[in-house]
What does this fold into?
Amino acid sequence: MMNKKSIKDIDIRNKKVLIRVDYNVPIDENGEVSDDTRIKESLPTLNYLLQQNCAIVMMSHLGRPKGKPDPKYSLKPVAKRLQQLINRPVIMAEGIVDEKTKELAKNLKNGEIMLLENIRFDPREEKNDREFAKELVSLVGEDAVFVQDAFGSVHRAHTSTYAVAEFLPAVCGFLVEKEISYFNKILTNPERPFVAILGGAKVSDKIGVIENLLDKVNVIIIGGAMAYTFLLSRGISIGNSLVESDKLDLARDILKKAEQKNVDILLPIDHIVATKIDENAEIKYIDNVDIPEGYLGVDIGENTIKRISNIISNAKTIVWNGPMGVFEIEKFSSGTKKVAQLIAEATDKGCISVVGGGDSVAAIKKFNLENKFSHVSTGGGASLELLEGKVLPGIDVLQNK
Ligand code: AMP
It folds into this structure.
């Protein structure tokens, strides 16, 4: 159970605040932010801090600039977009802890916002460097508060997500608080039946999640390419489907453990197949669990959907991570879409649904269903690690309630 103080649990009025946000957003060829979801998600925290008359110094990374300044990864477009969204000036620093930036930070008044340049322009960021942390803290002074609101980065112990928190009172912002509260709820005190729906490309990426969830859920529904490794481990033909041949023993082991723990693992019983993963490939429905040679599975079939629809409808808690097929291609996307719709309907009836980051989030955005779930996590890696039962450094370092 993560029980961390938030900005509401301390007296933050009139303070200087050093805040870590996750503005790792896509920038298009015109140098504009092409998806500002992450910026919008930081607004409740920023607005509260402004109401509390704080002076706000913000840190974020964008992309992987390899420890040196690279205009391609500048946060300038982000400052511009934030300024429009928050409707007040955002001071964009040219650097991070250089003299000019120090001067800007020193002169920052209450009610003003300043964004440092991409924190990964400094090679010390990813090294969780205490000296760099001290320099960052000196921008705001020792009376300041550190606010962690970069859920997408809390699984990393970097200078701006971890080391800085050792020098200042450290609490979470509303975004991290919301993430923590949903994951706490489903992982420690879920209403039952609790159903996990897992998909995506690889079993190997999700082993830790499956192992941890085996002790918590009632049912695990497996789709996507990872299902074929499980099916093959049971001796079922999978044609040319994507498979991890070195994970067959592990798949068998997981299926055995699930049986011992009384967890139902449901695998596809029919398939949509194609000759290749390509928009122009011909698709075919296979009304059988075995996939013939020459074809590969690209989506779950209608009988599989029928079988899981009752289970999803009756669930009281659902966690979903990973698409059921190659959803990026329209004609391979119906299984993923149907599952998203079923979870949305269950949510309407009072089920708590949490969609883990990454590709499932991309899928629900594509289907325009992103507002239909109890919680859509903003961190792919971080949400996976929480589902694996790991302690995340950027959360762990915050003050306990
Ligand atoms: P992940 O990042 O592990 O959640 O995997 C997501 C990716 O898995 C998506 O890009 C999907 O296209 C891919 N995927 C899902 N189902 C299949 C499948 N049957 N065959 C190949 N790739 C798949």
Q: What stands out?
A: The chain has two domains: 7-174, 182-387. The chain has 14 helices and 15 strands.
